Amino acid sequence: MPLEEIQDLQLDEKYLQPDTAEINGILMSKMISDNWDDIWNFQARPDDLLISTYAKAGTTWTQEIVDMIQNDGDVQKCQRANTFDRHPFIEWTLPPPLNSGLDLAKKMPPPRTLKTHLPVQLLPPSFWKENSKIIYVARNAKDCLVSYYHFSRMNRMVPDPGTWEEYIEKFKAGKVLWGSWYDHVKGWWDAKDRHRILYLFYEDMKEDPKREIKKILKFLEKDVPEEVLNKIIYHTSFDVMKQNPMANYTTLPTIIMDHSISPFMRKGRSEGGTLTCLYSCSNHGILPCFIFFLKNYFTVAQNEEFDKDYEKKMAGSTLTFRTEI
């Protein structure tokens, strides 16, 4: 849709803060569950690139990086359309006259770059059959929780998050859209050695964007000159992207996303809670350390309860996270 039509869009109230339903135990909006057969039977292609994340884990950032790589750092080409039109969100079903991700993906000529938040077990099987490339980005649990809470406050296309205290419990129980963070990150981690999956960490991308973008370039089998690489790093930095209307979702009407409540691109940094230590991260070569610091959201009691629950749910996994950079 043209931008002026999007801004003037009026939606039926039934599409706002929609009802939910479970698909194989995973909470989804009812608009997704009602369309699930079509989503499950989506036909991937061998030259598709899928960007997969849990919600609020750096999806849009990764999309912009990939788009800049694919367009050799041409900023104008990367501002040809909104992020959600350039990279169809395959399971996200929207009411008319908005384009649903599935419809956009089916009409898009190859090679396509697509987006999903689906847990690994709900990914349409054609992606595995066609051996499509997948970039997965994982972000630590507490920062995902904080960002997802604020996103749910400003986005009326997802359920009302309730109070902060209520939302913590929903998140821990996996009773939010796309299900459990714990199962999501572990499921994709376990799949990464069996399929063409590049598994990245949000914290690594913040720490050293050049290093992580080089990993993406290698995965995509693409080379760019150093000056183009530096241009990509600059134009996909948080401060620049926050001012980019084709990436910051400000073209959507306030009836869908109200940026006065909380901007879509809020802070882009670690800010989770009161932590007793940095998680030891052997796969990153980070030495265990114990640093006490107070953050903005979790009370001491909430943080202690969250950490106990976290340890139980992540027990036995080789996947570990950093919470500070």
TrEMBL record:
GO (cellular component) term, any one: cytoplasm
Keyword hit for Oxidoreductase: no
Main subcellular location: cytoplasm
Gene Ontology MF terms in the entry: sulfotransferase activity
Ranges of residues in domain Sulfotransferase: 46-317
Listed InterPro entries: P-loop_NTPase (IPR027417), Sulfotransferase_dom (IPR000863)
SUPFAM superfamilies: P-loop containing nucleoside triphosphate hydrolases
Subcellular location: Cytoplasm
UniProt-recorded name of the protein: Sulfotransferase
Native source species: Tupaia chinensis
